[in-house]
Amino acid sequence: MKMPNIEMYNxxxxxxxxxxxxYGLYGDKARIAYEMSKGQKGIVTCxxxxxxxxxxxxEVCDILNIPCDIHxxxxxxxxxxxxxxxxxxxxxxxxxxxxxxxxxxARINAEEKGYKFIQLGMLCNEAYELIGQNVxxxxxxxxxxxxxxxPVGSGTTLIGIVNELNKRxxxxxxxxxxxxxxxxxxxxxxxxxxxxxxxxxxxxxxxxKNVEFYGIVLNPIYEAKCIQYLQDGDLFYIVA
Length: 240
What we know:
Blueprint: E1 6-9, E2 12-16, E3 21-22, E4 25-26, H1 28-37, E5 43-46, H2 52-64, E6 68-73, H3 79-85, E7 90-94, H4 99-113, E8 116-118, H5 125-132, H6 135-138, E9 147-152, H7 156-167, E10 174-178, H8 184-190, E11 196-200, E12 212-213, E13 216-217, E14 234-238
């Protein structure tokens, strides 16, 4: 497994989880999906049309040679959907208006088939603990870092990091750039860490922002929308 590293660009530290390799797949979502899927009969999960999570589980299930059902809303194809179509997953497109309905349908599907259910956004202790392991990569730089800046969808990544910081009695400002839903409730429910600032992105979730950061190609739905909020001394957390 290829490990990520922290690089510096113009006084900003960058955690390059996009460089993490898991059996030929890159990014921390792939690592987490692999750990949560191995040994399972099958996987059922769900997400938006732009979801990174769904792609990670579909690709990992191909590697593990287990079935994977993906529930997504109907609508225009996206880069994520095109990647899903290049896997062996079963794509179930639903005409639904609310995420909780999509999540409920996926849960019922998993129960009927006896597959493991991965809920929308991976909001679960297993994911939080796996994400928290990345704090080990940050600790050597804590004396120099002023803030940790994390792109936020459901809030799972931020929750995993701050819960581990709290466990280790580390107090550093964590800034979450909310790129889609308002994750405030999730973060309040699943964390007890007080040094958090949440900032809504000024770019609509469904609008892709295609930019690079010092040559690093960023996810256009999440990381790319964080750049304008970075300050000297920040650690920019690239999930990938």
